[in-house]
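User: Here's a structure from my thesis project, written as structure tokens. My advisor, Dr. K., wants to see whether a designed sequence matches the one we expressed. Can you design one independently, without my sequence as a hint?
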């Protein structure tokens, strides 16, 4: 048993990645699944799709590597966070489509809670804001809108979980209903300081606590898979939300270390050690990972649209056929045109937190074409990251936040995007040799737990740089570009 199977269940696809005893990638399998948009601002997944693509890719990757279940020492799971699943504990069937983290349907209810003065209490306990992004209000919506759901929940017949919990339930054949502290910290229901579900918030939202999973460490015993799935029962020993798993995979174990992941959205995390830092800039206080019962905290800034802006160019505007086409297009853009895209397709995240905003493009001319729009799309990710990092440094001033940004995720493969990022934040950007840091983090948690992989210090020593991007842009140009972005955001907020 020399391999760790990492499950990376994301927003647009499920992936399975096999790592060997030296934490090298042996094989990868991936399967996309349908996104459902029933109304403007609503985003859903079919829970059966989440499960079938996960199970399918796991089997596929083992077969692809020429291995069997007997070669798999343990499983680590990382997942899209905040996405909300409610299922029948007797059948395992979801009672409604999963409501995705991007979904904004509870914006009005969140506004009512804020108006009633509840946000300070909620933020004090959870480190989060009253925003539709998080699971708690999504869960309440399902209980309120699925006939009989609330009564069934109170009777103990329904279970709630983020995607990790649902997969654990399915993998173990309903024997384990659990989550880890990082996923619990994203539900709006978990007291990150006391390390338990908040009865006060559950009462406020009308959520029966018997629905909630047991909270465990990020490296812990999550039971064993059903024997029929992989030919034998395989232990599940690591679980973390995708951004926390990436923080672990980037070996950001020391306070002050900083990483940014570019997937569908963009998420920056700053390790603040054993101290939960309260943000003055509407950033989130969250748990980076929890080992041996001790949480390590982080400041997090979330951007809703990063890689998704490239998907929009491809699927919405039909400008490109493949994401890789954006870089050559951006390189061809007219330097004399100043086109700014604010990709608020599902609202603006940190540090603005305006779910009601929608996207806007400024600076269009008759000669604006695909090249200028591609450049503006890639630049929008850099601008949004800059907003996050400035807020983080303001919140943790004097604590020596690392000047270097470690990056990962699909978009980090673009040299053009990473160079612009370094230019606009005016700081080095480090891209590691292993870009699959999210899956690597999940694999390390599981492998470390069973003794196959090294401890934190040993793992940190294995982190290797692929390329460092250093700022090349003149101060004058950077200032002009930032001012243009600032004006564009202000106009978007005012629309």
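Assistant: Designed independently from the structure alone:
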């Amino acid at each position: 048993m020399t391999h760790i199977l990492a499950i990376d269940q994301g927003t647009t696809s499920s992936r399975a990645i096999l790592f060997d005893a030296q934490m090298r990638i042996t094989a990868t399998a991936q399967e996309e699944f349908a996104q459902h948009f029933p109304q403007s601002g609503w985003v859903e997944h079919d829970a059966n799709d989440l499960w079938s693509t996960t199970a399918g890719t796991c089997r596929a990757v083992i077969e692809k590597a020429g291995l069997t279940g007997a070669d798999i020492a343990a499983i680590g799971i990382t997942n899209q966070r905040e996405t909300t699943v409610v299922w029948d504990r007797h059948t395992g069937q979801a009672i409604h489509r999963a409501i995705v983290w991007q979904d904004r349907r509870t914006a009005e209810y969140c506004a009512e809670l804020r108006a009633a003065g509840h946000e300070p209490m909620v933020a004090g306990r959870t480190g989060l804001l009253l925003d539709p992004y998080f699971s708690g209000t999504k869960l309440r919506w399902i209980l309120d809108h699925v006939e009989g759901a609330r009564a069934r929940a109170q009777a103990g017949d329904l279970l709630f979980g983020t995607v990790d919990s649902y997969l654990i339930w399915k993998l173990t054949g309903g024997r384990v209903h659990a989550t880890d502290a990082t996923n619990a910290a994203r539900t709006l229901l978990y007291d990150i300081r006391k390390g338990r579900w908040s009865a006060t918030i559950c009462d406020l939202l009308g959520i029966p606590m018997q629905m909630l999973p047991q909270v465990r460490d990020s490296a812990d015993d999550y039971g064993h898979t059903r024997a029929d799935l992989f030919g034998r029962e395989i232990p599940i020993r690591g679980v973390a939300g995708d951004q926390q798993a990436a923080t672990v995979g980037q070996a950001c174990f020391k306070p002050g270390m900083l990483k940014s992941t570019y997937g569908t959205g963009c998420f920056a995390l700053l390790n603040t050690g054993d101290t939960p830092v309260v943000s003055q800039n509407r950033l989130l206080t969250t748990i980076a990972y929890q080992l041996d019962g001790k949480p390590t905290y982080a400041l997090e800034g979330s951007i809703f649209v990063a890689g998704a802006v490239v998907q929009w160019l491809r699927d919405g505007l039909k400008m490109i056929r493949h994401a890789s086409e954006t870089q050559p297009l951006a390189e061809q853009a007219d330097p004399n045109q100043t086109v700014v895209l604010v990709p608020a397709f599902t609202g603006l995240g940190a540090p603005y937190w305006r779910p009601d905003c929608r996207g806007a493009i400024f600076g269009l001319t008759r000669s604006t074409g695909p090249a200028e729009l591609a450049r503006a799309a890639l630049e929008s990710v850099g601008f949004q990251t800059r907003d996050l990092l400035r807020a983080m440094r303001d919140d943790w001033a004097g604590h020596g936040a690392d000047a270097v940004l470690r990056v990962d995720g699909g978009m980090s493969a673009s040299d053009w995007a990473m160079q612009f990022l370094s230019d606009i934040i005016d700081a080095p950007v480090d891209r590691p040799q292993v870009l699959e840091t999210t899956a690597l983090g999940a694999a390390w948690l599981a492998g470390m737990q069973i003794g196959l992989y090294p401890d934190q210090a040993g793992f940190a020593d294995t982190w290797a740089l692929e390329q460092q991007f250093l700022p090349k842009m003149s101060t004058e140009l950077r200032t002009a570009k930032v001012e243009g972005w600032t004006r564009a955001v202000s106009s978007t907020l005012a629309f």
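When you compare it with your expressed construct, this may help: The chain has a mean pLDDT of 92.
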